[in-house]
């Protein structure tokens, strides 16, 4: 660990736009030593992916490297000729790209995509290439018959592993891993990382690991750099950063990590003891089932998304539904908000019996009483309308406010969710706000009708880590202030523990386990729940690698 | 493998439905017109045609005193037997006989020129999308778009005028020389190509730009996708990225578009045939219009529809070959 | 309160519209269209009547008759100018109708999905694969020749393409969260389609209208050329019909068909230019890439290799 294999000095990258160029990376300097795992942490837009893509010079237009020096294995990348660079790639350094799910060519088989690299760099063809491709698949634990599969036939986890296999194909000394696991479920994510760490031990690789998830890197990195707005704000060993770091931004990041094990952190806005939940449920779901049918007259493909689930939510309660992708949790959200019709089962709101499977029209009252906050704040607001439009339309529609009262009510509402000054925000268009601000607007919209229950479908998973907790706190505050009922749907057990009084664990469309949050975390009954808890707790890596 | 067969069968099922819809349309249109078709026919042709020709025409449309449902059944029966009625202009020749000769020429002329235009246009599209700094990308799109703006038949007139009448380089009609006997021999073959050259050139010229532009656009958006950046990172040769990574993907929507545009382009080919007096369906259609030979018109509509549906089915099979996603 | 002006200036929609106005290609295209429109409306009263017999048939172009005379001794220049009237009117009207019908059928199919979509898609696809010209010929030959007939025939054979495109975009919007959010807040479907979705589809609707107009003008001229229009009116199509009927090619009187054809091409080309413009403005990636190409020296641009600007060395 004495010789730097990567040396970056004052790297600056511009993106050309209609207005002035945006400095996506500004004066970044760091070194990585042989055999090290170096972590680069930052939120979306911090420039971390730009740094590594600039290192390989694969940034597509409209990027331009405007300053700096990049030395990899004694080669000056920024002054090398084009043919030198093409020859250098993959032999010396390979990359697992962010969005690895789209990194595979849809019309070529796995075999062809692996062998492309073998042929180009090692001149390996025919039986030899086949043999090597199979070895690589074994390495990432994928069945050999998958060689003839096409990307659309593979699950997200498989694609991810295959991209890792391609990155390892000719065993370069350095591998860049740019968010290699974001699209994956926690359990799979942890398995893949354990695999990578294992390989690194065996092969002595140098790894540059990029992620938004500081928690993840604390598990296995040697040194860390924290990026914000294109600059490195802190660079230190994992131990020092875990201890809190020097920069206030680092402190904020460290502080915003919820955990699924150990004691609950302080300052949580969980249910105060004084709050008594009513006996009769405000929402009851009984034997709900949803089967999706593929479109077309001749298509017989069916998918059971939700299979016979029942649960109750009481007034003032926050219930978490936790599940991985494909567990049917989002379908539950859509069923409860009646965006889709159930195939079978009942939804009782406020004790009223509604066999909703039969009715196509949803009464306006139901639309007032049940509101929803969506995952993607960029998608849930219409880019052509102002915040004022988004908040006023539901109020006009339900005749709750007239024109004169509207503006002051909306300003008030915006300030309640932390958007001050409200007048300014009312005029804004979605593209003029940050992701966090947009999500606050979406929450304000859901609250504007004073609904009986709010369904929040992954309300923070698209937000930057540092603001996730603040957004969750809005729900907790509103519950205490106005006895709001929330159905909180998430993949993240730790944040469910943070916010919810009770947790329902969903898997493959069925309820696996249900209990009060703390009891569930401390004393899980089902194996699957245990796995989830372990994956979301510090120290999981050593468990997996041993 | 099994799902490929299913896909092909499903598409075939769709074309059957489409063919059936065309048949029904063919049956309904005369009956939907204002007034009763039998008396329209009588009024239009009285005195111009022999009474037996008028009777034959009524019979072609199945215009009997039976209820409409039975008329429909007997219409379908006769279509299935290949009976498209009797021509008026060529009375008493059956429509199927007249059409039979023309269909081959249309498929030959329109088919080859469409494929040539698609191949050249797509290739140009790949090249200009890849070399966006080159001069070609600034010159070709507007130039070809300009040529694409001309009506097919008008450009055909200009070409025929310039290269046929004025310069005398090319023949001004027919599909092969007067003095040549059709058959599998070289002079016939050469004469066929010679006669088809100018009409084919017109068709290629007008439709080239469209294919080039759409290939260029899909190619450019494909070049922005993640798997292209990843391929560059892998250090693969530019040539391979251009062809196997970008073009292979970008061509798929254009293939679908090709199938969809067949009917439209065929219309252009029909008009072009008329100008060049090329003895295909278009030329027959012109004669049918001029002589108000309704049975012939409707027969041409039917056969052309079937040809287009068949060609579409072939395109589906090609897509199956190119796009693994259709194979499941 | 929020002033309307303020809102208007910042919206993406407003930016898009001002982008189109400022786009060079769209501007040139619009100028050509405007030129034809204005001359078709205002010039005719000041020139020869296009149907008058003036002088010897088939006179070549001269100072007296800019484009010569046709086989009936009529002024080709006057016919070219006046012919634009009906042709453009029918063409653009058909364009509008096609977009409306396409948006209605495609929009309903895409928004509601399910069985409604299955049935409407089948209808759309059947009309798509049916060859247009023969169908138009049959329809037009049974119906009395009139602009109304032309319009009906053009719309009937042209709507499916637009419906298909609009349907697929509607399907992507239908599944977007902002639509679900509107549904959950109790908005009616009609309002969601018109207020929330349609403005987002503006660039598609605009380019659909332009595509449909190009098609309608071309197909209309083709039908009239076959003699399926009202041959006694003066339109671009009948001009060509008479040119061909009077054996323009045999008599080598090119001036009887060249001006009209050129005008048709110019109109279609202008419309295509506007479509290019819409495309450029609606695609932000293309805009920034274009700026990038202007900024980076040509010799530094290689596929897959990020350029390094010279200033640092």
Distance between the termini of chain A: 24 Å
Approximate strand percentage of chain A: 15-25%
Number of strands of chain A: 19
* Most strands sheet of chain A: 6 strands, mixed
Note the main sheet of chain C.
none
CATH class of chain C: Mainly Alpha
Number of helices of chain A: 20
Q: Which CATH class of the largest domain in chain A is shown?
A: Alpha Beta
CATH superfamily of chain C: MetI-like
Mean of all residue-level pLDDT scores of chain A? 87
List SSEs of chain C in N-to-C order. Answer: HHHHHHHHHHHHH
Helical content class of chain A: 25-40%
CATH superfamily of the largest domain in chain A: P-loop containing nucleotide triphosphate hydrolases
User: Any idea how many domains of chain C?
Assistant: 1
CATH topology of the largest domain in chain A: Rossmann fold
* Mean pLDDT across every amino acid position of chain C: 86
Which class do the helix and strand fractions of chain A yield? alpha/beta
Q: Estimate the helix proportion of chain C, in percent.
A: 55-70%
Secondary-structure blueprint of this entry?
The complex is a heterotrimer of chains A (546), B (328) and C (313).
Chain A: E1 4-15, E2 22-33, E3 37-42, H1 48-55, E4 63-72, E5 75-76, H2 82-88, E6 93-96, H3 110-122, H4 126-139, H5 156-168, E7 174-178, H6 186-203, E8 206-211, H7 214-220, E9 223-228, E10 231-237, H8 238-242, H9 248-255, E11 281-293, E12 302-314, E13 318-322, H10 329-336, E14 344-349, H11 364-369, E15 370-373, H12 387-397, H13 403-416, H14 422-426, H15 435-448, E16 453-457, H16 465-482, E17 485-490, H17 493-499, E18 502-507, E19 510-516, H18 517-522, H19 527-535, H20 540-545
Parallel strand pairs in A: 3-8, 3-9, 6-7, 7-8, 13-17, 13-18, 15-16, 16-17
Antiparallel strand pairs in A: 1-2, 1-4, 4-5, 9-10, 11-12, 11-14, 18-19
Helix pairs in contact in A: 3-4, 12-13, 12-15, 13-15
Chain B: H1 2-32, H2 37-45, H3 51-60, H4 68-80, H5 95-130, H6 136-148, H7 152-166, H8 186-223, H9 226-233, H10 238-275, H11 281-290, H12 294-322
Helix pairs in contact in B: 1-12, 5-8, 5-10, 5-11, 5-12, 6-8, 7-8, 7-10, 8-10, 9-10, 10-11, 10-12, 11-12
Chain C: H1 4-10, H2 12-22, H3 24-42, H4 76-112, H5 114-129, H6 132-142, H7 147-174, H8 177-184, H9 189-197, H10 202-225, H11 236-245, H12 258-282, H13 284-295
Helix pairs in contact in C: 3-4, 3-12, 4-5, 4-7, 4-10, 4-11, 5-7, 6-7, 7-10, 8-9, 10-11, 10-12
